[in-house]
TrEMBL record:
GO MF annotation: an example: metal ion binding
Name of this chain's protein: Late nodulin domain-containing protein
Signal peptide stretch: 1-24
UniProt keywords, alphabetically: Signal
Domain Late nodulin: 3-51
Source taxonomy: Eukaryota, Viridiplantae, Streptophyta, Embryophyta, Tracheophyta
Transmembrane segments: none
Length: 58
């Protein structure tokens, strides 16, 4: 029974650490500070943070 408790605690801490880092962002001053654009995503610098926009193909 102690093993199940230890596994539950490890799982809880792992989920907490992963969920804590979900809203990561890149600090920028210009568009050049943002990651390069990909085929489906475009990045722009707004309010000092890089924002991604998904392109939709009609």
């Amino acid at each position: 029974m102690a093993h199940k408790f230890v596994y539950a605690i490890i799982l809880f801490f792992f989920l907490f650490l992963v969920a804590k880092n979900v809203k990561g962002y890149v600090v920028c001053r210009t568009v050049d500070d943002c990651p390069p654009d990909t085929r489906d995503l475009r990045y722009r610098c707004l309010n000092g943070k890089c924002k991604s926009y998904r392109l939709s193909y009609g």
